[in-house]
Amino acid sequence: MHMRVFYLGLVLLISSTLQAQRVPNEIENIDYLITYGAQADASRGDDDHVQILFFSIPRSYQSPVYLRIYDPDTGGLHDELQGGANTQLRFSVYGGKTAFSNKDAQKVNPTGNYNSGNPLASKVFGADPKLDANWYSFGPFNPAQGEEIDEMDAYVFKLIVEGLQGDDGNQYRCFLSELAGSNRIIEGANAFAYEYTFKLPKAKGVSHIYPFIDKSVISVTQYNFDFDQEGDILLYSVAKNRHPGAASNNNEWLKSKHSIVDSEKNTTLDIQFQKIKEGENALSFYITNQYDEAIPFFTIPIGGPPKYKYDLKVNIKAGVKK
Amino acid sequence: MRILFIFLSAYCTALQAQEQCGARQYFLNHRECGMEGHGARCVELDISHSIDKEGKSFIYEWNFGDGKVLSGPLTEYCYEQYGTYQITMDLLDPETRMIIRNELSTKISLLPPVEFATDTLQQMTAVFKYDPELLPGIAVEKVYWKIENEYYCGEQARHTFGQPGFHLIEIGVLGKTPDKMFFNGCTFRGAFITSKP
User: Fold this and answer.
1) Which of A109, A125, A221, B105 could join A257 via S-S bond, C-beta 3.0 to 4.6 A?
2) What is residue B16's predicted lDDT score, i.e. its pLDDT?
3) Phi-psi bin for B149: left (phi > 0), alpha (psi -120 to 50), beta?
């Protein structure tokens, strides 16, 4: 735990100039996170009907912050309805001691004291035309209401989204903002998660998740649920040129283990979801280290997206090839 | 032992002189002053040593910047014309037919051939004097010489050749153009040493 906090602190320092408050972020090429109602079948792509996100704010930032949710309602546009809209989700914001540092909060399954910390705000959303394709703002919060993490030099807030009832899928985005009525980035703030349940874009293309690999990692295991074999899951880094990972079929978890070489330590890994079919698809994903500890991934890759290092030899010659 | 010391001392002094006069640094900074690349229109591209065997199989497709496209981790192409070209490499996934664009890129400059005069010499040691006619109109301020990987500064360079045969003499010039603009250019001269004395 101590080690994990330490390296989070390190990477947040490195990323202090990045602006990563939209979750999911454009660079991930993921349009929406999705959480299903408690009665939705897992085969829709959500294994546990719970999403946990963390937002860090530099200690030097002292103005109020808002956690804004786009399309928090469960009906109308951007949501995955199963018949009539009958779903309710609860969005809860936590701060204070143990909101982040409690180990249960960093697990991939919502068990134990995952909702640790002080509850700061909570609201249950159902179908609501006023919030359909619109924003709802939690806050204002004093940054000091988050959990103070010395190693990160930051305050950390936790957002838990829980599917309470119903069988629809609620698609939404989050934005950590300086303002209540619009999205304004907070310099040096960041967002991260230990598991994502998300919607791939309808079109063919490549989506990304960017875990940061610290120096203690010697292997990673990627787990994916309900990818429906819509393409490939590839691991890409400074030393891996798209290593194929196991890609799950409908309603199943699949995993694959991959070794980490020295040149990949303290760099970001790019988990690429190559979708080769058009259409709707939601899935869940997480990645662990050799100790089965979940590795956080960041909405903006630390140090930028990795680039595989080719050894290109260019030889200019007078000769003409026969 | 004394002879060796004197030799080493002289060698070090010569090296120091080269460093101080800046000729070595000049040619390091201006690799285009060498003959390399002049008169060549073919380029070989090779990434075969960095193929990740555990990675997905791709077709490596090179776009040579003049409309030509060739495939393979090792490829060669000869341009029709000299010039500067931006070469990019795309990856084609033969299974999914997805294309990853601009995976790699590099810029090359193919310089036209340079004509230069060659002096035929019968002695191994010669003094070369900068000829203003090599760069007409340039008010020369500094001249750098590179002969057989030895470096000299000034309008004259005295060099003892190690081998008979043809030697290329690279000459770098800093100066002013007739309209008082800064000039930095290179030229060449050849020396053909007929035999050892």
Assistant:
1) A221
2) 52
3) left
pLDDT(B9) > 60: no
pLDDT bin (cut points 50, 70, 90) of residue B114 is confident
For residues A85 and A244, give the distance between their C-alpha atoms in angstroms, rounded to a whole number: 38
- Residue B56 and residue A319: Cβ atoms within 8 Å? no
The runs of H, that is alpha helices, within chain A are: 2-14
Q: Are A105 and A118 in contact (CB under 8 A)?
A: no
Separation CA B107–CA B64 (nearest Å): 10
Contact A165, A39 (CB under 8 A): yes
Nearest-by-CA chain A residue for B76: A321
Query: In chain B, what residues touch A276 (CB-CB under 8 Å)?
Result: 96-98
Q: What is the pLDDT of residues B65-94, one digit of tens each?
A: 999 999 999 999 999 999 999 999 999 999
Structure-token match 């509850």, residue found = A119
pTM of the model: 0.79
Q: What is the pLDDT of residue A177?
A: 96
The complex's ipTM works out to 0.80
The whole-angstrom distance between A201's CA and the closest CA on chain B is 16
Q: Which residues of A touch B50 (CB under 8 A)?
A: 309-312
Using a CB–CB cutoff of 8 Å, tell me whether A312 touches chain B: yes
Cα separation, A212 vs A253, whole angstroms: 23
Non-local (6+) Cβ contacts of A9 within 8 A are A149, A150, A151, A152, A153, A154
